[in-house]
Amino acid sequence: MQPDRAETLRDAVGLGLAVGLYGVAFGAAADAAGLDVWQAVVLSAVMFTGASQFALVGVLGAGGSPLAAVGSALLLGTRNTVYGVRLVPLLRPRGRLRRAGTAHWVIDETTALSLAAPDRAMAGLAFLVGGATLYLTWNATTVVGALGAAALGGTARAALDAIVPAAFLALLWPRLGRAFPEPAVQRRVALGGAVVALALTPFVPPGVQVVAAVVAVALAGRPRRAVGP
Amino acid sequence: MSGTWTAVLVASVGCYLLKLAGMSVPASWVEQPWVARVVDFVPAALLAALVVVQGLTSGAEIVVDGRLAGLAVAALALALRAPFIVVLLVAGAAGAGVHLLTG
Predict the structure, then answer these.
(1) Where are the domains of chain A?
(2) What percent of chain A has pLDDT over 70?
(3) Does residue B98 sit at the A interface (CB-CB below 8 Å)?
(4) Smaller CB count within 10 Å for chain A: N or C?
C-alpha cells in the first residue's frame, strides 16, 4: 500500500473510532433529558451531527419547548451547509442519489479529514472510511449510553447531570483558543451568550433563553463591524 | 405524537436538509460574508448559553449544585489539555461527590 493511502486510512479510522465513542456521552445525555432509547437512536442515525444532537436534548432536558430545541439544533447545523459547499469540488458526488448519501455524512470530522487529505482520491477515501467508521461507532455507542444511563441510581444520575454541562464546555473550549480564528471575538461572543441566557432564565420559558442569547449576540455583533480596527 | 418525537424528527430532517443544501445550492449563495460570520460565531454563543443553562438552571430558577463543581473541575481539566473523556469523568465525579456530601 502507498504511504499516503495507509496514512489516510489510519487517520480516518482512528478519528472515526475516537469521536464515535463519544456517542456514549450523547446517549447518556439523551436519557438524562428524558428521551427514550429510540429517540436517541433516531437522532444519531438521522440527524448525525453531534453538537446539534447535544443541543436538542440539552434544551428539551432543561424543560424547553420543542420549537426552541429544534431552533438550537438547526442553528448549530448551519455549519454543515458550509462544509458541503467546500466538499463538493473535492468529492464531486455524481448523481442525485450519491449526493443525497454523501450529504448525510457531512460533519466536522469528515470535512476535516477530507480537507487534510493529500489529493482528491485520498479525500474521497478519507470521507468514506472516516464517515463509515464514525457513523457505525456513534450509533452503537449511543445505544450503550442510553441503556446504561437508564439503569443508574441517584448518585450516578447526579454524576450524569454534571457531565452534560461539562460536555458543552468541552465542545466550546477549543473555539476560545488560539487555533480558532479571532479567539478574542469568540470569547466575547461566548461570554455574551452565557450572560444573556442566564439573565433571561427567570423570565422566559425554558429553552427560549438559549435561542434568545444567540439572537441577541448576533444583533449586538452587527454594528461592531463599522467601528475602526 | 409527543412534542419530543416531533422535535426529534423535525430537527433530524432539518439538519439533514441543511447538509444537503450545501451540496446542492450554488457556492456563491453560501459564501457570503454574513453566512461566514454566523457559522463562525453562532456556535460559541449557543454552546456558552447551553453551558450555563445546563449547569446553573432548573426550570425558571438559577440553582447552584454539584453541576457547578463539575463545570469548575471540567474547566481545570480542559485548561490542562485533558482528553474529552477525562473531562467528562472528572466532572461526573465532582457531581457525584457533591451529591453524596449534601445528600
Answers:
(1) 3-156, 177-229
(2) 96
(3) yes
(4) C
